[in-house]
Amino acid sequence: MNQIDSATRAEPPLLLPPPFLRWFADKGWQPRAHQLELLSRVEGGESMLLIAPTGAGKTLAGFLPSLVSLTQRGKVPPGSAFTGIHTLYISPLKALAVDIERNLMKPVGDMGLPVRIENRTGDTPASKRQRQKLNPPDILLTTPEQVALLLANGEAERFFRDLKYVVLDELHSLVTSKRGHLLSLGLARLRRLAPKMQAIGLSATVADPMDLQRWLAPQRPGENNHAGLITVTGGARPEISILSTEERVPWAGHSAAYAISDIYKAIGGQKTTLLFVNTRSQAERVFQELWTINDDNLAIALHHGSLDVGQRRKVEAAMSENRLRAVVATSTLDLGIDWGDVDMVIHVGAPKGASRLAQRIGRANHRMDEPSRAILVPANRFEVMECQAALDANYIGAQDTPPVGKGALDVLAQHVLGMACAAPFDPLALYAEITSAAPYSYLTWETFERIVDFVATGGYALRSYERYAKIRKTPEGFWRVSNPMVAQQYRLNVGTIIESPMLNVRMVKHNARGALGRGGMPLGKVEEYFIEMLSPGDTFLFSGKVLRFEGIRESECLVSQGYKLDPKVPSYNGGKFPLSTYLASQVRKMLADPSRHATLPEQVRDWLSLQKDISMLPKEDELLIETFPRGSRHYMVIYAFEGRLAHQTLGMLLTRRLDRAGLKPLGFVATDYSLAVWGLDDMGEAFKAGSPRLADLFDEDMLGDDLEAWLNESFLLKRTFRNCAVIAGLIDQRHPGKEKSGRQVTVSADLIYDVLRSHEPDHILLEATRNDASTGLLEIERLGDMLTRIKGHITHRPLDRISPLAVPVMLEIGKVPVGGEAQDFLLAEAADELFEDVVRH
Amino acid sequence: MHRIAHAISALPDNPALSARTVINGVAAVCDPLGGLYLPDLDILVVSDLHLEKGSAFARRGMMLPPYDTLATLRILDAVISRHNPKTVISLGDNFHDRVGSALMPELFRGMIETMARGREWVWINGNHDPDGTVALPGSCADELHHASLIFRHEPSLNASAGEIAGHLHPSATVRRREKYMRRACFATDGKRLIMPAFGVTTGGLDLRHQAMRGLFDHQSLVAHMLGRDRIYSVRFANLLG
């Protein structure tokens, strides 16, 4: 909000009260056109969506209607009746809410506006929260979870009755997640409490703005309600390039180790560089390698979501004071916190999505009128093409943000309980309210009833829990909570962010007697399952250090300084995005069009032309399948270009079918670009003989019975189930009086899942789990679209040896651990080798 | 799923790959369904059924599926049918809480009555259900001495040889190609044995956990791990901590 906009209209902004005009004049600024348009349309009664690039003064635009309205209202005189909050600001990040408070207080103070602004997050002390309820501020800055909590309170009606505006920041990032689903339900409730409330959404560029416009407005049958739209285009075009290097670009892998010295040189040539990577383990790796060659001692820091909060805050502070030359970071920095002056963004690894790239590049140079600069560093040859596709997309402004999608049922269950905690509800009225939220407009009455039943007694066909019901129907037909403990339980478990069980990582030293000391420095948190894989003495990379695993004490993972040079690479989780559908199609196009190969580096050009000679380059809508022998095995490589998750699902289903056809597949491995299946029999010969026919093998009906059969015995769904069970309130993460960490939960979600699956496979929570998996973990919809697309376009190339295009996926074989299915097989193998049947008598 | 699914399909004439062992001179068979059969005494031992765990949680506001009792009883039925023992000993924590057996639905009570018909049944009291069972066939006891064996719920630190106990829910982990497999197990060093938990919603405690310390002679300790349809026997030294 501190720069001049050349596109400002010349006409005097009549809408603005005198203090605002004076403030702009004093600063020598002009309000921007979109700020004034937003103000006037909101004053005209519309809900609005503002889409603008970073640095366009979005925040001020979003708050202008509130500030003007509050200025016109003036201070509430002491002794007047209770006045509820006027404006609710909701951001996806706590830190953002705090940041905004600072940024907003400044102009409000300068103009001397009669406005009280406060924030409320999980960190706000109880006394302040209590005071806020009794004496609400004019503008409350908060997060979606806090909104849910406020709405589940008996005072909600009074607290929100005067609400005029809801400002939703970073809306594009909120709406596609379960947090967004919960928030959409909250918005529907706010609208009921304050029928004249208007919503103002602030968003980065998205593929389909209408999705968001509908999200902001109440949906009713037969009506086409949506918020108005203001799009701010322009801003300087980013300067993006792909790293040019003398080094050999590897076939496979994600480390981009080949480019480290080039990256280091680029950092040296700038004041401040942001290095984005896709996963936390990649961040650790890149950070370590940069420091290995950091002869100039450049201030290079590391930032990712697993690190200790204290450490992260230190890095953030150093960054905003411009004390760092570079930060290696994962998506924790994607959202709009002010990070000081960043000259350049280096993206290590392919960005996986065009919109993601645009948003990350937007981090460089927070000024709209200066170009952002970015360098893309592909980690392997396929990524070279992907980077080129993302770069092309960026120039034409293509967007591939995911659609909003249907609201999740586990979130709905949580909301229904929350509404019962607020006040007894009439099911018909609540159903009408819920279906006015865009993500839930699809919800049938029958499903809603099942959810209410689930909330009350678990919704089991065996109705044995009636006497323990959490909510009960009153004689008037209203649902109310059975006892106050239910509300307490709800408050402890609100929210949709489910952490997998984590252990603190703590650095300890051996004392003189060789025993482990206590109370060393905390380094951050790591998933429990990762630690369970380690034996004492194993080394891994974390927090930029090589650490030696010493053991687990209570809920802490103890480590010491490791000295090995080649640590085990950490495989703990961290945003592994699959390739976006849009970029995948662009890569296919590029592959099919030799005239576009000219823009690619020579190494990649040679690789593709070799592929053309030995096998072929598939056409855009063609599915190429190669079969060839190698060693004692036969391979089939499928170039589907649909991302790792969809390929994994395809691999699971395909191996079932091959097995049924008697082809005895032994395993498969999936990358973002292709899928390799191997076995002992010559699959190529079988396909040539038409037994089975490839068209049958890849028929869409694999998503019917085969999928169902696989899901029935799959271990993959268990993790999804655990999340659903916690969000839906079946399993408490925290129980009143017993604040358990994930590690100490006394019931195992896996075992619950087994019992439920085998006894009530149609249970609503299993339905919710399958819904989640089909869009998330398994990407079944995407796979379905692909199978439709390639129908009649399958080309089989039987080869006598591996093709150039097959090399990357073949290199992944052996690196990828087997899934749960093969566990018993491995157990048997281990049993046969490791131990004897010593105890036979 | 594997245990439930397997129990449903388990038939008496479908022999599973059990492991044979000897406890203080008495022959024993570790069944992959989680029961210990003593052929010379014609006794079947199970432990930590934790029946009615789902409803125990439901009373406290967590509506866990009410099917755990049914699932556990089905497996119990399968393992009883396989060995057709004269005596069944349930080694304590038979119910998840004190009121479990009194509040159990009639359907499940009937299943237990059918299983107990024509045999002796002993409910050993556990820490979850110290007051014994209500309205069920069989007798209740804190512990039982028979032949050279002692049956009790909690393993004692200075036990004389021949103790068969439960309570700790032992499990063991092996590593194979960067993959970790953790399974419930029978743990025995030939002198004593600790039973795996039988209930379908009971978790496990690793054999290397400090609660297990001092109970076994590690040199001769073997974990008989419960696999899909066989027992995998692993020496303690080859387990992962």
Explain what this protein looks like in three dimensions:
The complex is a heterodimer of chains A (841) and B (241). Chain A is α/β, with parallel strands linked by helices and 841 residues long. In chain A, the strands form five sheets. Chain A has a seven-stranded parallel sheet, sandwiched between helices. In chain A, strands 8-13-12-9-11-10 form a six-stranded parallel sheet, sandwiched between helices. Chain A starts with 17 loop residues before the first helix and ends in a 7-residue tail after the last helix. Chain B is built from five helices and 16 strands. In chain B, the strands form two sheets. In chain B, strands 8, 9, 10, 11, 12, 13, 14, 15 and 16 form a nine-stranded mixed sheet that branches. A seven-stranded mixed sheet of chain B has the order 1-2-3-4-5-6-7, covered by helices on one side. In chain B, helix 1 (2-9) packs across helix 3 (68-83) and helix 3 (68-83) packs parallel to helix 5 (106-116). The longest helix of chain B has 16 residues, at 68-83. The model of chain B has no long low-confidence stretch (mean pLDDT 89). Chains A and B meet through helix 19, helix 28 and helix 32 of A and helix 1, strand 1, helix 2, helix 3 and strand 11 of B.
